[in-house]
Design goal:
Layout (H helix, E strand, L loop, with lengths): L3 E4 L9 H17 L2 E6 L9 H14 L5 E5 L4 H13 L3 E4 L3 H13 L15 H9 L4 E5 L6 E6 L3 E6 L7 E7 L9 H11 L4 E5 L5 H11 L6 E5 L2 E2 L15 H6 L4 H10 L14 H7 L10 E2 L2 H14 L2 H14 L10 H11 L8 H5 L1 H4 L7 H7 L4 H12 L7 H14 L4 H13 L7 H9 L3 H12 L58 E3 L7 E3 L2 E3 L7 E3 L2 E5 L4 E3 L5 E3 L6 E7 L4 H5 L4 E6 L4 H26 L1 H28 L4 H22 L1 H19 L4
Parallel strand pairs: 1-2, 2-3, 9-10, 11-12
Antiparallel strand pairs: 4-5, 5-8, 6-7, 13-16, 14-15, 17-20, 18-19, 20-21
Helix pairs in contact: 1-10, 6-7, 9-11, 12-13, 16-19, 17-19, 17-21, 25-26
Length: about 725
């Protein structure tokens, strides 16, 4: 048999995802069977059908790769053919003119509703005489054409998806209208059910594949096939596409048309791949990515599900990303250019082609949809950069400005930049300038992109360098963000304190001497503490000498404040500071962050005051509120298991009883559910009833009919009463 299938969309809207999935199943089956895929546009609804919708349907199918073998044909061009078929049915006595007015139909429906009956036509004009017809026409009534449906008829077919399906004629709503109202003996415009049958007959359609929402039309159409003396085709009603709530996917759920999916940046290959999996399972259930041709080789309706298929956006996004990640760079660039142009980015598609391909190659592995490229590439097309808070924080880090200045200086000797050279620059600066490479890379990313996360930094730098944007952004980051520029040539202060300079003698108020108390802290041996020269002060002090202070086994011999102006107290954050070892070597502190308060205390000795000597008290700042809250939370969490265990031990008995009650209720519900399901199985319910009757008969005979057993039963009942109520004294 030469398989011929058809897709018959109605141009009353854009190509819907449901219609597109039906097209995919028709196409796959036709290719699997070596048959033909025919396109037919069902535009008999003149009021709602529009040419722009027809164009949208044809463009959408072409974009998806659903190439058709015949068509498109239009039902609006075949109206006379349909009228001839209606006349044939009238001539055979299988159809008739019905003059029932709209008001009469409404009255009939209201009466049926009041009697709790399903709405249906009562076939009142099926057997009108010629005199009655003439009377109605004399009143000026118009007549529709109705096809006779026998209420006693049973219609069955073997559905390729749903197996055997059976309908009763009485459930089809009465005699079916096949042509609209008209007067003067003229046949009105033929309706859907008749037109589709006539088309399928003329086009020799062998298999009708459509959504399950058409299943109620199938028994009516089978009757029309029979009435017109045609061969009935095979039917396959595919499952509906559902939303996340399990309801039919509709426009209320957002994007549903194929043109919308295209605008959102989905690839046709990925969308077709996903639609294939909406209701069909391949033989290898682990295979999820395949082309249309590969799917056609495997496709059968045996593996099409009966249940509805939920639309999963995450699955579609994943499939789309897989196709994008494997796409050749030139092809990906061609697809991205329209999105960049739509975003208003300025470039020359020919002159800038190598530069555009570099961007496509960079972001390709991160793309989920084509539209993602607009935001990802904004940093390459924009002249200015917008800094995120995290990037600003990075640029404010110590030595960040020094790293950026070093990069700017290194770029002076590079007219162009490639990836290998960019990597050499960062390695060289890290070694020569004694800068942490991670600091260089993070600061470079923050300055060039304004963010701390994004595509590969080196490749991004190279792309920006080709337009000279990298130098501008580095300079902007240094100048506009007020970064603390550090002189890399500054000498490390000497480990030995300078000699005190002579200062004018100043009278001082006599105060009692204050001794520096011993402060305990876990610290390594320190012989000198250096305070940077950037602290703001009021009174200039040439030197501060402090008697030896013992700090938990650590000896501090002197605190040297060189050329420092200070107020009564100077707060020095311990974090991110450098410790000066006796040898003068600088090392980073790895100790926990602490705050040290240095308080100036006059000695009260006029002679000592004249040479600028001051005693200093070093105290440790108490922990802040956040630290206290953190410790409380940790304490509560650590005690939580013990608390739960104690609670269970205290209320073990009632908790066990409650658990048993809940388990019993759940078990009973499950058992009742199983029994209900078993009762629906033929012959099983009568079997249970027979078992119950047999057990009842045995019980009556065993305990009631035999005297010895009656006496035994009475004794057992008496014993049970005594156990429950107690033995009477």
């Amino acid at each position: 048999m030469n398989v011929r299938v058809r897709l018959a969309p109605s141009p009353t809207g854009n190509l819907h995802i449901g219609t597109a999935r039906t097209a995919v199943f028709n196409w796959l089956f036709a290719r699997n069977q070596g048959g033909q895929f025919i396109l037919r546009v069902e535009d008999t609804d003149v009021e709602r059908s529009k040419s722009e919708y027809t164009d949208n349907i044809l463009e959408g199918l072409t974009w998806l790769g659903m190439n058709w073998d015949e068509g498109p044909s239009f039902q609006s061009e075949r109206l006379e053919t349909y009228r001839q078929a209606v006349q044939t049915l009238l001539d055979k006595g299988l159809a008739y003119r019905c003059y029932t007015a709209s008001a009469e139909l409404d009255e009939m429906r209201e009466a049926q509703k009041a009697n709790k009956q399903a709405p249906r036509y009562d076939n009142r004009h099926r057997n009108l005489t010629s005199k009655e017809r003439a009377a109605f026409e004399g009143e000026g009534r118009q007549a529709v054409i109705r096809f006779i449906i026998d209420d006693d008829r049973t219609i069955s077919w073997n559905d390729m998806v749903r197996d055997t399906v059976t309908w009763k004629g009485s459930d089809l709503g009465g005699d079916m209208v096949i042509a609209r109202a008209s007067s003067g003996g003229v046949i009105g415009q033929p309706l859907y059910n008749l037109a589709v049958v006539v088309d399928d007959i003329d086009m020799a359609i062998t298999h009708v594949i459509r959504g399950e929402d058409h299943i109620a039309n199938t028994p009516k159409q089978i009757l029309l096939y029979e009435a017109l003396g045609a061969t009935i085709p095979e039917f396959a009603h595919t499952p509906l596409i559902l939303n996340s709530q399990g309801q039919k996917l509709s426009k209320r759920d957002g994007v549903t048309s194929i043109s919308d999916f295209k605008d959102m940046g989905y690839l046709p290959e990925a969308l077709v791949n996903y639609m294939t999996l909406l209701g069909w399972t391949p033989p290898d259930s682990t295979q999820e990515i395949f082309t249309l041709s590969e799917a056609a080789e495997l496709f059968t309706f045996y593996r099409v599900n009966k249940a509805g298929a939920k639309f999963d956006w995450d699955k579609l996004n994943w499939l789309n990303s897989q196709y994008l990640h494997k796409m050749p760079v030139p092809q990906l660039t061609d697809l991205l250019i329209p999105y960049w142009q739509k975003a208003g980015y300025e470039f020359d598609t020919e002159a800038d082609r190598p530069w555009l391909e570099q961007m496509a190659a960079l972001i390709g592995p991160s793309l989920v949809r084509l539209t993602d490229a607009v935001d990802m590439c904004k940093l390459f097309f924009s002249t200015a950069v917008e800094y995120e808070e995290e990037a600003i924080a990075q640029l404010q880090q110590p030595k960040a400005a020094e790293a950026l200045l070093a990069v700017l200086e290194a770029l002076e000797s590079h007219s162009t930049l490639v990836s290998a050279e960019a990597q050499k620059i960062t390695k060289k600066l890290s070694k020569e300038k004694n800068l942490n490479k991670g600091l260089i890379m993070r600061s470079l990313r923050a300055a060039l992109t304004g963010a701390m996360h994004g595509p590969d930094l080196i490749e991004s730098w190279v792309i920006l360098n080709q337009r000279g944007t990298d130098r501008d952004r580095l300079q902007t980051a240094i100048s506009n963000l007020n970064l603390p520029v550090v002189d890399s040539a500054a000498e490390t202060p000497s480990s030995e304190p300078p000699k005190a300079e002579a200062v004018p003698e100043t009278p001082a108020t006599e105060q009692p001497a204050v001794e520096t108390p011993t402060v305990e802290t876990a610290a390594a041996e320190v012989t000198a503490v250096e305070i940077p020269t950037t602290v703001t002060i009021i009174t200039e002090i040439a030197a501060v000498e402090i008697p030896t202070v013992k700090i938990a086994g650590t000896e501090v011999s002197a605190v040297d404040i060189s050329a420092v102006e200070t107020t009564a107290a100077v707060e020095i954050p311990a974090a991110n500071q450098q410790k000066t070892i006796a040898s003068g070597e600088m090392t980073s502190s790895n100790e926990p962050e602490k705050t040290v308060i240095i308080t100036e205390i006059p000695t009260g000795n006029e002679a000592e005051s004249s040479i600028g000597t001051t005693k200093v008290v070093i105290t440790e700042e108490p922990p802040n509120q956040a630290q206290q809250i953190k410790e409380q939370v940790i304490s509560i969490l650590s005690e939580l298991p013990a608390y739960i265990g104690a609670f269970y031990q205290q209320y073990k008995s009632p908790l066990t009883v409650v658990g048993l009650i809940l388990a019993s209720i759940i078990s009973l519900k499950v058992l009742l559910g199983i029994v209900d399901e078993l009762n629906d199985i033929p012959l099983l319910a009568p079997t249970f009833e027979l078992i119950g009757i047999g057990y009842t008969a045995w019980f009556v005979y065993r305990y009631l009919l035999r005297s010895s057993n009656r006496q035994q039963l009475g004794q057992e009942i008496q014993a049970l009463k005594e156990q429950v109520f107690g033995k009477k004294s």
